[in-house]
Design a protein that fits this description.
Blueprint lengths: L1 E5 L3 H7 L1 H9 L3 E6 L5 H7 L2 E4 L9 H18 L3 E5 L1 H14 L3 E6 L3 H5 L3 H14 L4 E4 L2 H10 L6 E4 L20 E6 L8 H13 L4 E6 L12 H9 L4 E2 L6 H5 L4 E4 L8 H8 L4 E4 L4 H4 L6 E4 L4 H13 L2 H18 L2 H16 L5 H8 L2
Parallel strand pairs: 1-2, 1-4, 2-3, 4-5, 5-6, 6-7, 8-9, 8-11, 9-10, 11-12, 12-13
Length: 382
Amino acid sequence: MRIAIVINSSWNVFNFRKNLIHALLERGDEVIAIAPEDEYSKKLVAMGCEFYPVPMNTTGVNPIRDLLLLFRLIRIYKKVKADVFLHYTIKPGIYGTLAAKLAGSAAVINNVSGLGTVFIQDNWVLSVAVQLYKHSFKFADHIFFQNPDDKKLFISLVNPEGPSTSVIPGSGIDHHRFFPKFNTNGHFTFLMVARILVEKGVKEYVEAARILKGKGLNVKFLLLGQIEKKHLRAISAATVQQWHDEKVIEYVGVTDKVEDWIARAHVVVLPSYREGLPKTLLEGAAMSRPLIASDVPGCNAVVHDGVTGLLCKERDVNSLADAMQRMMFFTDKERSAMGENARQHVITHFDDSFVVDEYLEKIDSYTSAETPKTHQLKEVFG
């Protein structure tokens, strides 16, 4: 079979879907990656994928640009002739679903990998997104969600008629790659790994660092992640550099070896406003690190308060600072127990083999059945 994976960046395909790609290739399927071109595109080709670049404005609502994306995807989809299209992230999900059904009768499996900024804010953008989802996702065959809260909220707002739905454990965690490894120094070290966006709680992390450093505690705060230049809710490079220069936090950029940075930290922190299922917490837990995160959907599926780490209030700097200080004052034995609990929890519930198996099962089930929605879609669009 020919399986197309469509995401908003080649980096995303390579870092989050690698094991699924390997599983598909090993059983003899052909894999097509469709995404904006970046330095990871060649790595996908080296893995054995066909690669088709597609320019994509991943943020904002611009009808002309989005219509252009739809036409680009239709053209590519007709060319690749895939049996199944796997869509991830918002725009590939919405416009890719329409393109797949207009281009032919391929099966469509979508992954709502976190509801993100759009669903956090109650404004016109949310209304537009809901309508786009309503009109597009009814032509999908299956929708994966990454936590039950996202599924419940999405269905209550969108109520897509037609596709089946289920919850999978995010993109899973490879606990053979992420295993207990320690390379910490004399400073007690916190690590936050995230895209540098407001909704990830980066500002709260920095302000909590100010509070703890103001108390004279011997502690280091690392920040690792991509600075998003074009995202509407991005934190500027100048602001991050200012924090770094002030020595409030140490910004360490981006890396393909995040496990090396987790090894240098005592605790992994993610004060996000909402998540699907955060990879950074799964990675930290798999390396036996206690965790600190906001008590919000996605995060609280990984962090069980007092067991695998500590939960803090969403968007509350003082609550975050308090949780971080409490974690510092725990004994090494108490933190070690939390870390061990965290690793066991993610191996039991979030191993990436579960995700791969779910995808393979769904791919096989939908390619063995006809997808009659194509004719219905063509009638809608004339």
